[in-house]
Amino acid sequence: MKVTRLFLLIPFQFLLSNLNAQVIKGTIKNNITNEAAPAVSIHVKNSSEGTYSDDRGRFQLTVKKKLPVVLIFSSLGFETKEVEVQSTTTPLDVILNPNSILGQEVVVSASRVVQKKLSSPVTIEQLSSKDISNSPQLNYMDMIQGLKGVDVTVSSIGFTSISTRGFNTSGNTNFTQIVDGMDNQAPGLNFPLGSAISLTQLDVDNIEVLSGASSALYGSRGLNGTMVMTGKDPFKYQGLSVLVTQGVNHVKSSGSYDPVSASPYYDWAIRYATKINEKLAFKINSQYTQANDWVATDSTNKNGPGNRFTDPNYNGVNYYGGATNADINPFLEGALAGDPSLAPLIEPLLAKPNYVTRTGYPEYGYLDNKAKLFKANAELRYKISPKLEAIMSGTYGTGNIVYTNDTRYQLKSFKVGQYKAELKSDNWFVRAYTTTENSGRTIIAGPTAQYINEAWKTSYDGATGGWYPEYTSALLASLAGGASLNDAHLAARAFADQGRTQLGTPQFNELKEKISNTPISEGGTLFLDRSKLYNAEAQYNFTDAVKFMSVIAGVNWRLYSLNSKNTLFPDKDKPINVKEYSAYVQLAKKLAQDQLTLSTSFRYDKNTLFSSPKVTSRASAVYEPVKDNFIRFSYQNAYSFPSNIQALQNTLNGYNSYSSGGSSLLLNDNYHFNEYPPYTLESVSAYQQSGDASVLKKFEYNDIKPQSVNAFELGYAALIGKRVMFDVLGYFSTWKNFIGYANVANTPGTSDVTAFKDHSTYVQYNIAFNGGQTVNTYGYAASVSVDLTHNFLAKVNYFSDNIKNKNNSQINNFNTPHYHINMEFGNSGFGKKQEWSFGTTLRYKPGYFYVVSGGLAEGRVPSSAVIDAQVSYKLIKARSGIRLGATNITNKYYSTGVANPNIGAVYYITYAYNIL
């Protein structure tokens, strides 16, 4: 009977609680424009109850406290307002006054806690959704180029690699990109996937870029910086948003070569989010980009000073197939033995080697330049309680883009997915996610072209002759006819190339499809990367329990399941599993009446590929001598276990040429370096030219091991009169066991060095290894932002990165000019109702030397001054906007690295609906 009464009381108590609850409704508007103010935080003073305004500025909040209550309305860009609510009979009309956001920005990534950007203990740059909405760039990855301390390499539309502190290359494995708590790296290749699977344009809430070492907080491979991206919370950002951009690129420019005609550019994005009730919300996003890609057209000869009309051994940077070369002297000697009367022609030629390359194919017409990128995301959030939230999300990306490394790679129909489950509270989170990768039908430009040449006509064959014997016969015939040596070589090439498969023909396409769709392990050039990453982590903030200081601790477990079917890794029999374990703790304490903040972090990491664990640390001090003036000093000891690529890669990058990891197990078991020693490729080339074996230099190698850096930074940031914000800094870093790359060769099956005379008898490798000496990097930077009132804002930044004591035998990827200058000037709203806005940016870089990792190319990148601009008009009643703009508005083509494409202008018009 007592139990029955108890159950009867439950609904009665529930009814009483609802009777006591008060439902407050209202609308929030901008005082200047009278527009609805979305995503405004509304919470009850001295309570955890709260909500957000929707995309039309409306809100509805259920409060359990008796009236009157005080509501606090706050949003970045508006003055905070308190409103006392006496009654719920009439909806509230709340008017917020716009306010300067300069110096008010908050960040999370610098210390894993919310703090003002000004008071951050390390250098950090930031982009908000408001920054993105007023930018003239087409996407946020382009915007990042203008941040202080940031370098980028643009391989193609859709593939931008980011780094800081000078180490700049495509696919930087020492830069970490984190999206909504998930490491955005490709599981097998270990470098961030850029925009391929990151947030869609409409779903970016905040982007934070930490310059330099950050592994004490974010783990291995954070040596060159970390970018933390946060998507929009569907509880906060609601409604339907649409962004449609139509443009044109490849507009002809005088003095710039572009083989592609003027072409359309499309970029469409849509986002829908809704709060079903106070506990449940979801969002869906998608974005599709399509354009004719920029084309790499560098014709620089990698084998010497000549060009394809003057050097028989020509191998152009972006001409593929020319890596196959041979000394034709054996064929000349054979001709002389068969006909001694040719001695006057042949004997002068035999005085030195006569290297000749096969004819290469230019990139345009060979690689498909139709860039396509599609990504989609869905997220469901459920509030178990006001302080505990469950999150489920899935992200998928696919498309066709081009990436630069040891050659150019066309990623065709690649597929990447990330899937997450998370429980998140105010003080802790538990998160698990997985990343799946499918390399699709990726075309490796260099070796595929070499195989096409061999499939059409073998280089030499004792039974049928071959391309080189035909070339030699035609050369002698031309010389006998009185032609000059140069003209004879041109005639010989034309003769040997008779009937050669031409770009775009059915025969060429058939050969290309057959070779590029046959796995490397079966004699083709297709790699089958189906690697996966599994990650679980947890963090707890003990600050509420430990009153005298802030304490944050966390653990992380990760599994890489490397599965390439022996085409990228030595995983012929089964996938290779690599595990990582880590734990970290961060301590912070405020002193001197909260003017001084001291913090330190420690992290323990273990990787199963290496016997010894690593312990790293960070210590920092931030002092505020005067309000809004902060002096910061930090020391960071960071490390990087060699990535899976740096340790275990075994990838074909040309005919008899491989990109290789530095594990001695791989080098000895696969390449037999312990039996047939490697020599530096530079000394092999010298031997080929001189015939003197004494110039050959052995390459000394050891098992690759982790690299580390000790970095010191001193900075000063201040906000003056709420109108001027500046930041200056200097840093110095010392690197040990620095991982770079070297080009070497050996002769499997023989230790006879004369085998190096014949290209077909030796194998080349681009190998990751640790440099012996200490390497130092240093630099400085300054930035100034000025609020000019009436929504005008001007920014300028300057930074410089330098390296010394570098190992000249290594390719170190320190590809940066001596300085950068970036400028911005814009207005986020002018006119009677602030319906007009504009934005302009300038990025200037002087010329600099650039070396492509993998030995693809090296050379000087010309200076560039890139101007982007846009002007926008808001249709306030339609909640829409129209933007007219251009990137690289002067259309003076520029490049971010050798072997990468030259980038021209994109002129565009954009329609935006319901965008903040």
Short summary:
With 916 residues, this protein is mainly β. It has a domain at 2-96: Immunoglobulin-like (Sandwich).
Question: Can you offer a commentary on this structure?
Answer:
By secondary structure, this protein is mostly beta strands. Helix 7 packs across helix 10 (506-516). The chain is elongated. The chain contains 13 helices and 50 strands. The chain has a domain at 2-96: Immunoglobulin-like (Sandwich), CATH 2.60.40. It starts with a helix and ends with a strand. It holds the Pfam family CarbopepD_reg_2.
What's the helix and strand layout?
Layout: H1 2-20, E1 22-30, E2 41-44, E3 50-52, E4 58-63, E5 69-74, E6 81-85, E7 92-96, E8 106-107, E9 115-116, E10 124-128, H2 129-133, H3 140-143, E11 150-156, E12 159-164, E13 176-179, E14 182-183, E15 204-210, H4 215-218, E16 226-231, E17 239-249, E18 263-275, E19 280-292, E20 319-320, E21 325-327, H5 329-338, H6 343-349, E22 355-357, E23 361-362, E24 370-385, E25 388-404, E26 408-425, E27 428-438, E28 443-444, H7 445-456, H8 467-480, H9 485-496, H10 506-516, E29 532-541, E30 550-562, E31 576-591, E32 596-607, E33 614-626, E34 629-640, H11 644-648, E35 650-654, E36 657-660, H12 664-669, E37 679-680, H13 681-690, E38 707-720, E39 724-736, E40 739-746, E41 763-770, E42 775-787, E43 792-804, E44 820-830, E45 836-845, E46 848-851, E47 858-861, E48 864-875, E49 880-887, E50 906-913
Parallel strand pairs: 1-7, 13-16, 36-41
Antiparallel strand pairs: 1-4, 2-3, 2-5, 5-6, 8-9, 10-15, 11-12, 13-14, 15-16, 17-18, 17-50, 18-19, 19-24, 20-23, 21-22, 24-25, 25-26, 26-27, 26-28, 27-29, 29-30, 30-31, 31-32, 32-33, 33-34, 34-38, 35-36, 37-40, 38-39, 39-42, 40-41, 42-43, 43-44, 44-45, 45-48, 46-47, 48-49, 49-50
